[in-house]
Write a structure and sequence with these properties.
The protein is mainly alpha-helical. It has a domain of 53 residues: Winged helix-like DNA-binding domain superfamily/Winged helix DNA-binding domain (Arc Repressor Mutant, subunit A), CATH 1.10.10.10. It is 57% helix and 0% strand. It contains four helices and no strands. α3 crosses α4. The longest helix has 18 residues. It is globular. The chain starts with 18 loop residues before the first helix and ends in a 9-residue tail after the last helix.
Length: 87
């Protein structure tokens, strides 16, 4: 070793397959109203059922279903352009 610092490698997001899909999906999730974002997060990132979400949040299961449906309707519109990228 010659004692010179070595620069850290910068991640090449553009060179990573699917990077724009990941970025677009997360931006769409962040754009959802807070209560819709939270039920989507609990369902898909925490693996909770609709019943478990209702119990955890102390809300009726019908409210959970409505929030998920509204979120999916918004996500479907925003993410429609990605349909050709998803296998």
């Amino acid at each position: 070793m010659n004692g010179e610092p070595v620069a850290a490698a910068e991640p090449d997001e553009a060179g990573t397959p699917g990077w724009h899909v990941h970025r677009t999906v997360h931006a769409a999730l962040q754009a959802l109203p807070r209560e819709q974002h939270f039920v989507v997060w609990l369902a898909f990132f925490q693996g909770l059922t609709q019943t478990e979400i209702a119990e955890r949040l102390g809300i009726p299961i019908g409210t959970v279903k409505t929030r998920l449906r509204l979120a999916f309707d918004k996500l479907r519109l925003v993410l429609a352009s990605l349909k050709d990228w998803i296998v």
